[in-house]
Amino acid sequence: MIVGKKILIGGTLLLSSLAYSQKPCGTEQYRDANFSQEKLMQFLQAEAATRSSADYVYPISAHVFQHDLGFGGLNSSILERAIDTMNARYAPLGIEFYLCGPINYIDRTDLWDFDRSQEENELMPYLIPNTINIFFAREVTSGSTGLCGYSNFPWSTNDFIVMNNGCTANGATLSHELGHYFGLLHTHSPGELVNRVNCSFAGDECCDTPADPTLDNNNVNQNCEYIGTETDFNGNSYMPMVENIMSYAPAECRNTFTTDQTNRARFYASTERNYFNCSVSSIDEDNLLNSIKLYPNPVTNKVNIQSEWAIEKVEVFDLSLKLLISNNGLTALNTSIDVDELTRGTFVMKISLTDGRVVSKRFVKI
Predict the structure, then answer these.
(1) Same domain flag for 251 and 167
(2) What is the residue range of 75's domain?
(3) Which one, 83, 146, 238, 245, has least CB within 10 Å?
(4) Is the four-CA dihedral 147, 153, 158, 161 of positive or negative sign?
């Protein structure tokens, strides 16, 4: 069956060593006050007789921030590979993801480098209901702190994910964030003892994930072996699961969910993330580009703009991104711009439509 629900993904997982200059996860970690092991057991008992091999399928709405002139966004091939990797990791859980409609490229330089502490409300108009909304930015910060990304849990208020483009490429970070979306905590969540006597309510609340002192490339070597000497409150040495996707081990080490994590994720998929569907009604990017034409091109003194959609503003930039011409308040399907004063060369015309969409096209002045 296809299920739907808003998706929030928890902490961004740690990347390979180059990513350790950023905080690996910006997700605010707090527990589900309504969760209990009894509820989980009741769900598992009810599911046992009906479980299919892949019965949770989730649509993703991908939003890519780029420069006002339409460049610098996440490469679509990187996103596709990340989703492929994620699907391989989630196949044992019976959870699958796919892109719902074309990528939504958002030409906003102000959000290209995204500051969570200041700009989170700017995301709300772009949210597509009943899909997992994931935003991709050149940089992600929270004030002065760099982040690989962040998300929210099923019990959180917000419902979206924000990813750093560079952290998307390894595939592991996106898998980690989706784990938070389905209610999985960090394996190093506080309080769990090595002997696991409190594993059902401390740490990540999964008893088959060993207690974790918080992994990084200082206590995990290049062979993905734990080499740390940390001990828990009782003085017992940690023996963490380096390969666990919800840990902070280097990205190349993480590829596994445990049985308890699988059960917990499916519990939240069924009870909280159960209302998704993909319904795409907007025209795709190619149709939008083809619906707006510039002529003549090359041009000597006046360039005409023919559009199937109402135009609100036209701006002309040189290739160094210096604004040269700006015409506001047009609200017309067709218009023309006097470019007689421009020197010879190639220029970029940014056309803003009244419905908020933006198209950038190049023209040559002779």
Answers:
(1) yes
(2) 17-271
(3) 146
(4) positive
Q: Are 27 and 163 in contact (CB under 8 A)?
A: no
**Does residue 154 share a domain with residue 251?**
yes
Q: Which of 14, 23, 28 is nearest to 146 (CA)?
A: 23
135 and 255 co-located in one domain: yes
Residue 71 CA neighbour count, 13 Å, CB half: 8
Report d(CA 361, CA 347) in Å as an integer. Answer: 9
Contact present, 349 and 294 (Cβ < 8 Å): yes
Which pair of structure tokens corresponds to residue 285? 């990017």
222 vs 354, residue with greater confidence: 222
Claim to verify: residue 165 and residue 242 sit in the same structural domain:
yes
Give the residue from 364, 360, 361 showing the smallest Cα distance to 346. Answer: 364
Of 249, 271, 293, the residue that ends a domain is 271
The confidence score (pLDDT) of residue 356 equals 74
- Tell which of 242, 271, 300 closes a domain: 271
- Same domain for 240 and 168, yes or no, is yes
pTM of the shown model: 0.72
Q: Which residue has 């993703």 as its token pair?
A: 60
> Quick check: 145 and 174 in contact, CB under 8 A?
no
Distance, in Å, from the CA atom of 224 to the CA atom of 160, rounded to the nearest integer, reads 31
Q: pLDDT-derived band of residue 166, with 50, 70 and 90 as boundaries? A: very high
- Are 253 and 289 members of one domain? no
303 part of a folded domain: yes
CA 354 to chain centre: 27
Mean pLDDT of 138-156: 92
Strand order in the sheet with 145-147: 113-115, 139-142, 145-147
Output the domain CATH number for residue 185: 3.40.390.10
Pairing of strands 302-317, 323-327: antiparallel
Whole-number Å distance between alpha carbons of 216 and 15: 9
